[in-house]
Amino acid sequence: MSPDIRVPLLAVSTISSPILISMSVVIASRSRAFASPSAANAGAEKVRNRISRRFFDTAISFLDIKTTQYNLQEGSGHLSVIDLHSHIVPGVDDGARTFSEATEMIRRMRDNIGSNSTIVFTPHYSSSMSGRIVYARSERANLFQDKIEEEFPEGLSFLTAGELMVRGHFLRHMEQVRYPGTGWVLIEFSTGVSWIETLIQVRRIISRGYNPLIAHPERYRWCRRKRSRLIKLSKMGCGALVSARSLSFEKYAATARNLLRDGLCHAICSDAHSPRDYILDGRLKKKLEHFSRIPWAVVTLTMPELILNDMKLPELPLYEQKKIL
Ligand SMILES: [Fe+2]
To answer: 323: CA distance to ligand 1 center in Å?
Structure first.
């Protein structure tokens, strides 16, 4: 844990709440150096400083999850959010194709979400990719972040991590994908992955000292068949991040909605690949409020802040209920 976030965490841990006590159990400190320290570490520092000032308030708000609906900046027209999953880095994967398309996406985010928001770039990697390709992609993403920070000097904050496709026996490149200064890694599987294979891979990742964040669980057959499996994964220390983009796909939309409705995910991210995709703006907030029982601010700010502060996430479901399929 970085020293700059120690004070607010200690303040939080003095509150006698079982939720906060479990939240304040800090995952082991990590001394690994980030692959490309310049822009990424400076950006992470900037974001963490902002979070540390704000963390106490949002952690207190988390106490109210099961009893009260609350919204940050209600009525202001803008929302502070942290988008942990996006494909904006141009020309590296199936996300933005050009720099101008990437800037169009960011401009839209700047104009539609709050100025106190953070966007994390998570280009695709694969555990079977060669180290050379991974290094080149990671360098390109960090250079892109530098350029974007010049282009958008005010308003949004940016970080660079990655989304790792975990395949077969290969399990590499987690250093390149982890969220800066944390042990959290965003992972995905092929959509046909079995439940057993998922458990095996998750255990392997945890045994190496990382904490898996399952990207778009709504896309996996094991989750669509039995959503409560996410409870088991959360007990193992995993997070679950629904993609807003899944709401545009008939095959995944119902499961995505049900996960949000039943509190079976920790956060919603844009997973935006193009300027036409959902972003975490007021329009999406309105849509979610029709079916989600978890307050918007919890899934777009409070939980992502825990992740960027390298803290444990609460076990699922976030919302108590009688029966989960
Ligand atoms: Fe993605």
So the answer is: 30
Ligand 1 centroid to Cα of residue 187, in Å, is 9
Query: How does pLDDT run across 155-172, given as a tens digit for each residue?
Result: 899 999 999 999 888 789
Residues in Cβ contact with 269 at an 8 Å cutoff, skipping those fewer than 6 apart: 83, 84, 85, 86, 241, 242, 243, 244, 280
Q: Which two tokens stand for residue 190?
A: 């092929």
- Residue owning tokens 């949000």: 260
Q: What is the pLDDT of residues 50-87, one digit of tens each?
A: 554 444 444 444 544 433 333 334 444 567 999 999 99
3-state class (DSSP) for residue 313: coil
Instruction: Note the CATH number of domain 5-308.
Output: 3.20.20.140
Q: How far apart are the CA of 86 and the centre of ligand 1, in A?
A: 6
Distance 67 CA to ligand 1 centre (A): 32
94 CA to middle of ligand 1, Å? 9
| Distance in Å, CA 226 to ligand 1 centroid | 22
pLDDT tens, position by position, 200-258: 999 999 999 999 999 999 999 999 999 999 999 999 999 999 999 999 999 999 999 99
Token pair belonging to 309: 């502060």
Give residue limits of the domains in the chain: 5-308
* All residues at 6 or more sequence positions from 3 whose CB lies less than 8 Å from its CB, including other chains: none
Return d(Cα 87, Cα 95) in angstroms, integer: 5
